[in-house]
Amino acid sequence: MPLRPHLVSEIDAALAGIPKANLTSASAGYDLYEAYIWALVLKAARNEGATVRFRNRDGNLPTNFWFRTSPSNIFSSAHEYCHAEIEFPGRPVLEAHVGIYVTGRSQIAHECDVAVLYKSEAEICRSSNVEPRSSKLVLAVECKYYINSGIGINLGRSFLGLLSDVYKGDRYFVGSADAPNVKTLFAAHRKNHELGLTPLNKRLEARLVSAFEKTFDLFKSSRP
After folding, report:
1. Residue 102 in 3-state DSSP?
2. What string of DSSP letters covers 118-170?
3. Cβ-Cβ contacts under 8 Å for 39 (sequence gap 6 or more)
4. pLDDT tens across 16-43, in order?
5. d(CA 192, CA 190)
6. What's the CA gap between 200 and 203, in Å, rounded?
7. Cβ contacts of residue 33 below 8 Å, gap of 6+?
8. What is d(CA 139, CA 47) in angstroms, rounded to the nearest whole number?
9. Torsion, Cα of 39, 43, 45, 49 (10° steps)
10. Residue 96 and residue 90: Cα distance in Å, rounded?
């Protein structure tokens, strides 16, 4: 069964009627997969009572939603890149992005396929042309889109290395293909992961959304 139309359907549902400018079923699978995981993050936020709004780089409501299709700076003006605002009552506003760079403890920039961070941090970075600090991330997801091959153990090891630098907030490794060895590796290190995840597996999809909900529930309960 073709996967890409199902990914597009999930993205459409998350956007709640805003036309997409640059993602269709003909888009690259990895771009669709990142936007799909972003859509699941928004679903979890809404389930936890958040108001979700869509914004472009200037903070305006977009008429078309432009997803990043390669990693770039949060302050990039190459396109009118868009993001989602997530607001829980009485809590700082968050932003959910696809494909931005963040800096770790080493001050080296790392790509975040899906990143949820404080809006206050994002605004400073857009106005000052700097990367967000990883300490201001609430949630981040590494996305791996593999259809005709498995996810190798080296990708799992690389993710563990990344965690030593990008160190705060909940970090998830998510992939479209199953990978028993990678699961064993992450289980040994007690790292958040979901492998074999696509819109065709609603059980795994619901499990990941539930994990994201837990992240947002902890955010709502934490001290401002």
Report:
1. strand
2. EHHHHHHHHHHT-PPBGGGEEEEEEEE--SSSPPPHHHHHHHHHHHTTS-SSE
3. 10, 11, 13, 14, 15
4. 878 888 999 999 999 999 999 999 999 9
5. 7
6. 9
7. 7, 143, 145, 176
8. 16
9. 150
10. 18
CA 112 to chain centre: 7
**Strand ranges of the sheet holding 51-56, from the earlier edge strand across to the other edge:** 51-56, 82-87, 94-103, 109-118, 137-144, 170-175, 192-195
Amino acid of residue 221: S
Q: Which residue has the tokens 């990678």?
A: 182
The CA distance from 38 to 116, in Å, is: 9
Q: Count other C-beta atoms under 10 Å from residue 26's C-beta.
A: 8
Nearest-angstrom CA–CA distance, 96 and 116: 4
- pLDDT tens digits along 172-197: 999 999 988 988 998 888 889 999 99
pTM score over 0.90 = yes
